[in-house]
Amino acid sequence: MTNVSLPMLSLRGVGKSYGCNRVLKDFNLDIQRGEVVTLIGPSGSGKTTALRCMNFLEEYDEGEVYIGGALLGYETMPNGSRRRASERAISEVRAAAAMVFQQFNLWPHMRVIDNVTAPLTLVKGMRPDTARERAMRVLDRVGLAAKANSYPSQLSGGQQQRVGIARALAVEPQVMLMDEPTSALDPELVDEVLEVIQSLAREHMTMVMVTHEMGFAAKVSDRVAFMEGGRVVECGPPQQLFSDPVSERLRAFLRTWLSRNANNDLAAFDSVAEPGCK
Ligand SMILES: Nc1ncnc2c1ncn2[C@@H]1O[C@H](COP(=O)(O)OP(=O)(O)O)[C@@H](O)[C@H]1O
Ligand SMILES: [Mg+2]
């Protein structure tokens, strides 16, 4: 059970290495219930790794990740050392956090409805008819009830990602983790996915999202965290972070972004200063 008075997600001094490559270093971030936090930063700065550590798809090796106050992935021994928790304990804590992947990760040989029910019946042990009912509800939620019996290959990329979102919603997570949910999509399919995400934000779904859609980040985020070199360099409300960046590294990052996107998304930057706008 998660404790409602604590942050939904809390990362304290998290470190992660691949061999001798230390990709997360003293990563700190608290995400409150109902908050939408966006991770931005250059390629290779550790955004995906940070997100994957938030539900133990990646094993972090320093610091702590708490979901609703429960330590994720490890148990503390009486002598103060820690060891990997049992798979069952990990699953229990992780169940509160659902992931939406950049490449959708749908099972190609299964119909849309079965993609959504599988985690419910196989992982949660839900009865097939109950799972089906819930799956239809979340598919309707993302506007795809009519595609329940299609195969992923019969859907557009935007529709496939909406199924990915429905699958994540079906487990009724307390926090959604989304890794560049629109970056594998053709430009004309991006908006339909962003609209679904925005509607979740309006309903105060807690979300942590990695995105390069800076205008969108500005619109839906309560806070934006800029990462570089495996840590959060600067974090704050989008209007502050985008209009008045403190660190030179974020200034440089935004300059590069603006010069690359000079024609299409400046307007979104200008509209940042709508307080509390979602
Ligand atoms: N499975 C892995 N094995 C080894 N190195 C990895 C692995 N995943 C990521 N890395 C490395 O970790 C660093 C951070 O990667 P990543 O978290 O994917 O960054 P971002 O999402 O910000 O682009 C990169 O240097 C990348 O090469
Ligand atoms: Mg990434």
TrEMBL record:
Sorted alphabetically, the keyword list is: Amino-acid transport, ATP-binding, Cell membrane, Membrane, Nucleotide-binding, Transport
What is this protein's record name?
Amino acid ABC transporter ATP-binding protein
- Organism, by scientific name, is Noviherbaspirillum album
User: Where would one find the signal peptide in this protein?
Assistant: none
Q: Where in the cell is it found?
A: Cell membrane
Question: What region holds the ABC transporter domain?
Answer: 9-254
Q: Which GO terms describe its molecular function?
A: ATP binding
Against CDD domains, the record matches this protein to:
ABC_HisP_GlnQ
Instruction: Give the family per the record.
Output: Belongs to the ABC transporter superfamily.
Keyword check for Nucleus: no
Question: What membrane topology does this protein have?
Answer: Peripheral membrane protein
Q: What is its main location?
A: membrane
